[in-house]
């Protein structure tokens, strides 16, 4: 395992982060989840990413149990706040002060820790003044409940506004957590340059494009049993944007490239995102320990420039690059109980 600074901060994290979205408390039984976390630790992963909304808080609980007994100072634990949890009442969502302050305490209880290393705004809240949100984050940092703050799926303009308030409040705003892969490059035009200027690092999710970049989905063939594309609990909905024949056909043409550099398709995909110098880490998930063991082999890999160019040539116009896609996925308002 290799380790990198998170942006320009002093926090060092493993360049492969273990994440439990769509797995712990949902797709994967608790015993298997613990085995995946053990495989991550054995592979040198020290950074773990979760969120209160994953499996409606169950994922945090499972991760807390799985990490129990580990030396806390040797781990970097990240979680997030925004989406509705619990009974989904009118203050159970968003980035208002009440929800943020109550959510951090609940997350800490579930994770069985006194603090998280990184507390992230899971989306931008268009219904709450940014000053209110950042003030709440500042109180959390100053109270010792979080060491650093970050955001997920914010636009470049939103990141810049948040960073300005963070400087005024003297809190370390250090990261962005966007979707990023060979197929989904919407951060490259605006978010990455802005983050580089401000000293933020990217902790990217879905580097394997929900499993599409493993090559297991073949045009015209039945979907593999038990795959994310067959998961009715949320996985199938998330992966559908990539499940077009034109995309799947291009992905199949990446196989010879992976073989030439002695990597699996998944390893190639993870190694590809790590070539971006603004990417501090890539998040991987797993339903089986062996998936962790295999995917961490992407750590420390340097892909030659000609390989990167060939990947671009193969994928061509199926790659999504429009930065407006980040804003399209942003909630227009908070969902509240009727």
From TrEMBL:
Keywords: NADP, Oxidoreductase
Residue span, NADP-dependent oxidoreductase domain: 15-314
InterPro entries: AKR, K_chnl_volt-dep_bsu_KCNAB-rel, NAD(P)_OxRdtase_dom_sf, NADP_OxRdtase_dom
Keyword Cell membrane tagged: no
Keyword Cell membrane in record: no
Transmembrane parts of this sequence: none
Family membership: Belongs to the shaker potassium channel beta subunit family.
PANTHER family (alphabetical): HYPERKINETIC, ISOFORM M
The protein's name in its UniProt record: Aldo/keto reductase family protein
Organismal lineage: Bacteria, Bacillati, Actinomycetota, Actinomycetes, Micrococcales
